[in-house]
Amino acid sequence: MSCPFKPKWERRKEARPKELLAAALHLFVERGFAATRLDDVAKAAGVSKGTLYLYFSSKEDLFKAVVRESIVPLLGEAEGMIDEFEGNTESLFRQLTLSWWQSIGETKLSGLPKLMMGEAGNFPELARFYQEEVIARGERLLVRVLERGMECGEIRKVDLEIDTRLLIAPVIMMMMMWKHSSCVCQIEPEKLSVYLEHYIRMAWNSLVIR
């Protein structure tokens, strides 16, 4: 006769990696990479430290998994949006920016850029990982948008490397400084969407042919 239910530990086995990643993201953002201990991640996820090591070999491995399971898939979705988008480039730029803000800027993930800025000097290998997996791929996304706009005659000829980084910087600043630096360069949370709308309009107006 088969057991009518699975033991609690067995039912939760497949969910454990997700619970560990969620706990790790929260602690990394709240405390920083250096100050986050694996013991605390395991405790927050409701498992033993030994269980954590069944899935992740080190804190660095855990951080990389957080990035690969949370931000990297969103980059893939954005790439798919560009591939399939049929409207004008201004609409594409707007939709990408709003989608990025909704999926990252308004979530706990928005704290990762600030974390990397603060920890890069002490953890250069993690900085290189984040540069390759997130920053460089995100820049290539925007390069594609700008190339599309130039090819369609919708925007002026721009320096793809410089202008891409200048367009990204204000959004990172909103996430990194205004959301995660209490009482420093802070604006009211309810006004962030207004700032984003102004950014989209100003950024696009700086690109159009006059």
Folded structure, characterized:
The chain is mostly helical. Helices cover 70% and strands 0% of the residues. It has ten helices and no strands. It has helices at 8-11, 16-31, 38-45, 49-55, 59-84, 89-105, 111-119, 124-151, 160-178, 192-205. Helix 2 crosses helix 3 (38-45) and helix 8 (124-151) packs across helix 9 (160-178). The model is unreliable at 1-11 (pLDDT under 50).
SSE ordering: HHHHHHHHHH
Give the structural class: mainly alpha
Shape: elongated
Radius of gyration: 20 Å
In percent, how helical is the residue content? Answer: over 70%
Mean pLDDT: 88
List how many beta strands DSSP finds: 0
Terminal CA distance reads 78 Å
Largest sheet: none
Low-confidence stretches: 1-11
The helix tally amounts to 10
Strand content: under 5%
Q: Could you give a short description of this structure?
A:
By secondary structure, the protein is mainly α. The chain is built from ten helices and no strands.
Question: What descriptors fit this protein?
Answer:
about 210 residues; mainly alpha; 10 helices; disordered N terminus
How does the SSE layout of this entry go?
Blueprint: H1 8-11, H2 16-31, H3 38-45, H4 49-55, H5 59-84, H6 89-105, H7 111-119, H8 124-151, H9 160-178, H10 192-205
